[in-house]
Every structure is written in C-alpha cells, then in structure tokens.
Write a structure and sequence with these properties.
The protein has 471 residues and is α/β, with parallel strands linked by helices. The chain contains 19 helices and 17 strands. The protein has a seven-stranded mixed β-sheet with strand order 4-12-11-10-9-5-8, with helices on both faces. A four-stranded antiparallel β-sheet has the order 13-14-17-16. α2 (26-35) runs parallel beside α4 (64-79), α3 crosses α4 and α17 runs parallel beside α19 (458-470).
C-alpha cells in the first residue's frame, strides 16, 4: 500500500506578504495617500524586514492588515512635530524648557499675518526705498521706556554681547565680582565678555562691592562699567553693592558708558499684581544708565528677543556694528513683539490680555476653586492605588526672574499607597508625558503635583485625564 503523501511544508519566510499586498490593505492605501508612494513603500519594507529577521523563530506571520497598520504608525510617528504642546503644571510660569512666555492672541494673529504674506520688513513705503527692520518697534520701545533710541537682537545675551563688542572690544569691562553670573546652559558672563573681545576687570568681593572699587579700577583702557542683574540667585547677609546712580556718575566722570543689564526686564511695576517690586527699565534709565539691556520673553511676556535702549548715539553705534546683522530679528518675532508692546499702552487691561501677567495675577483662592472642580476627574483617572487630593503650594516666576519670589498657588496631588513610592511616581510621570498632550508636573515630598497656576484650558485638561483613565 502506497504511503500517504504529506503536504509540502511552507517555510515561515515564504508566508511573508509582498510590499504590494501590504500597500493594498486599507492602512497601506491610507499611508500612500498621506505620505506618498515612496515613503509608504519604505515603511512597508521596514516592517517586512523585521518579519524576515524573526521568521526563523516559527509561528504564523501577522495579518497583512496588521503589517500595514504598523507601517502607517511608523510614518505618523516620523511625521509628528518635534515641538509639541504640553500642559505646564510645573508651578514655574516662565519655564525655559517649556518655551517661557505664552504669547497673547494679538501677537499670534500678527505672526500668522506676517507668515502668509510679503511684508514691509525692510521697505519704506513713503520713499519706496530700503527701510530698517528695527523701525517697526523702535518707536514703541522709546514711547514705553522713555529711552532716546532702541535696537533689537535675538536675546538678552546677544544684547550684552553686542554692547560689549561695540564699546569694550580690546578694553576693560569693569564689573562687580558678585555679579559675574552664570545663566542657563552654563553660559557665563565672563565667557560672553571674552567672546565679545572685552577684558574683564573684577572689582569688590562676592558679597560686598563699593563705588570706590569702581573708581580705583578706572584707567586709560577702561571701556565701560557693567551692572549685571542677579537673575537666578540672591546674596544675603553682610552685603553691599554700588547704587546704579553712583555707577552712572562714575562712568560719566570717566567719559565711558554705564550699562545696566536688567536680565528679565519689566516695563511695569509688578507690585500692582501682588508681587515684589522689581526695578523697571524706566527706573534704570532714570538712575542714569547710558544703555539698558533686557529680555522680551520673560517678564515682558513677548517673543524671544533682546533690547538695547538708551542714549541715541550709543544705540546707533550698536546698530552699526557688523555683528548686529548676525543677531537681528526675523519678521515673525518683530510682528509678535510689536503686537505685545502695543498692549502696554493700556496697563489697566494688560493682565487680562497678556498671559504671563494673567498667570502672575491669579490668586490662591481662584486656583484652589479650580483644583476642587478638577479633583474628582483626577481621582477617577488614577484609579486604585493612589491617594489623591488638592493642596496649597507655591509657584515661582522662572527663567531667573525674581529668584526668591514665590506665588501662593494650589495643586492636584497623587501619592502612591505602595511602599515603592519612587518607582510608582516615575511611572506615573512617564504616563502623563506619554499622553497626546503631555501633562508636565513635578515630584515633591513623595507626591506628584500638578500646579494649576498656568492652567487656562480646563476642557482639554479634562480630556487628557479621560485619556489617562483609558490608558
């Protein structure tokens, strides 16, 4: 009797579908429509290559629809923007890592308009001739600060660099040892001076510097006197510093500029919003500064930029420096800055229209009421294994502005009931970051806190909590 013939064995590799079959599936056709034939083909081949690499392990290959869906997911992940929207629930209003100031709607609209059309960036309509781009905000800066003139660069570090290079290249910059700051990213003021070609002349000590220290340092090679704002620290106790007005008088007597670097810089008295009073740009000019430098994306609440304001002939010298071209602003930031500065013409409505000041001005009572509304959703999203609640906390300004100033606030919190608290908090933080719109909070005293000071979109926040619950 003849033996019964066995069906031929099919190798796992032979069962792997072709690229054409993958792209013929629904997800494959969608991939071609959205990303093009070439990209979709590459993604499909990448998935099939993974299957061939694991085919030796045996087992049935996945369905064609599954392969096509995986290819589509890869294309979507690759196409996702690198910068993503997040909820800033850290308690730091001006968070450098999260983009600092949120722009007002007027600035956003101005940027969109400038993006869509050619503009008069460097074109003078009156004379049909080349214009100067800083002219779009120069008048506003003069109006709001009282300065004779102004020019703009891409951040405050650039403003300091440009001033030093213009007036102290090859000369000495006299500065207090207690003000030789280091800002974020390990950028140090002495390093900026070297890059500008200036020679640092330190005077005084870390905690005490007197006017006579500056007077004794003056010499034929003195370029300027610099006062730098202690933007991210404070020296307390047995301290002394030379008053800006005294430094201005010393510089005037030596016929060199006195430069007051305010760091963050503000155009209004923050005390009206319940905060500690910070020297304004107007204060610095009244104290006798020849030039004042400050940021646009911190306390001012606008786009990233740096201001140089002060005496006209000195500002003009900075503007004519060839380095200025490498540091100039583009049309988008100029459009956003102009719209932001115009809001300062109406101080009474500023807190309602400028997000940065709105966040500063929120009271603990208002934020606590918001926390009470959201607590049931927060608890439901986390489920069992967590002790949830709302508690009082303290927010901070951020970005080096008012380093010792805190704002009374309120937060939602979650504390794990298990003994492995650190690991549980790390895992929860990871899940919050993995949401379509990540929730960025902070861990404090064995609990994860979501400070609600900067939360002005409750609907999207509730939607994010619902997605967390589903996950």
């Amino acid at each position: 009797m003849d033996a019964i013939a066995k069906p031929p064995r099919t190798s796992p590799r032979a069962q792997i579908p072709s690229v054409d079959r993958v792209l013929s599936a629904d997800a494959g056709r969608l991939a071609v429509a959205r990303f093009g034939q070439s990209a979709a083909t590459g993604a499909a081949r990448a998935q099939l290559a993974k299957l061939r690499a694991t085919a030796a392990d045996g087992g049935a290959p996945p369905e064609i629809a599954t392969v096509a869906a995986a290819a589509l997911r890869d294309l979507e992940a690759r196409d996702a923007p690198s910068q993503r929207r997040v909820f800033n629930l850290t308690g730091t209003v001006l968070h450098t890592n999260l983009g600092r100031a949120v722009l007002p709607e007027e600035a956003i609209a101005a940027v969109i308009e400038a993006m869509r059309h050619p503009t008069t960036l460097e074109f003078n309509l009156d004379g049909a001739a080349r214009g100067e781009r800083d002219d779009h905000v120069r008048g506003l800066a003069r109006e709001l600060t009282g300065a004779e003139d102004a020019c703009l660069v891409n951040n405050n570090a650039s403003a300091v660099l440009l001033v030093l290079n213009t007036f102290s290249r090859g000369k000495e910059t006299i500065a207090s040892r207690g003000e030789l700051i280091e800002i974020g990213g390990a950028f140090r003021l002495p390093d900026i001076m070297r890059r500008a070609g200036a020679k640092l002349r330190e005077v005084g000590t870390t905690n005490r510097t007197h006017p006579r220290d500056f007077e004794e340092a003056l010499g034929p090679n003195s370029g300027l006197i610099l006062k730098a704002h202690a933007s991210n620290y404070s020296i307390q106790g047995f301290t002394a510093e030379a008053a800006p007005s005294a430094l201005a008088a010393i510089a005037k007597g030596a016929n060199i500029p006195f430069v007051d670097d305010l760091g963050s810089g503000t155009l209004i008295d923050l005390a009206r919003y319940g905060m500690k009073r910070e020297r304004t740009v107007q204060d610095a000019l009244k104290d006798g500064a020849d030039l004042v430098t400050f940021s646009g994306d911190k306390l001012l609440g606008g786009p990233q930029c740096g201001f140089i304001v002060g005496r006209k002939e000195l500002v003009r010298a900075c503007a004519k420096n060839h380095l200025k071209r490498a540091l100039r602003l583009d049309k988008l930031r100029l459009a956003a800055l102009e719209a932001t500065l115009k809001l300062y013409r109406d101080p009474d409505s500023l807190a309602a229209r400028l997000p940065t000041l709105r966040y500063f001005a929120r009271t603990r009572a208002e934020i606590s009421a918001q926390a009470a509304r959201l607590l049931p959703r927060w608890s439901a999203a986390l489920g069992e294994g967590w002790r949830c609640g709302a508690r009082e906390c303290a927010s901070q300004i951020g970005s080096g502005a008012l380093p010792l100033e805190t704002l009374p606030s309120a937060a939602l919190f979650a504390a794990p009931s298990s003994k492995r608290k650190g690991r549980a908090l790390d895992e929860l933080s990871r899940k919050l970051r993995a949401l379509p719109v990540p929730l960025i909070g902070r861990v404090h005293e064995d609990a994860l806190l979501l400070d609600l000071r900067c939360l002005d979109d409750e609907a999207d926040f509730v939607a994010a909590l619902a997605q967390l619950a589903e996950a």
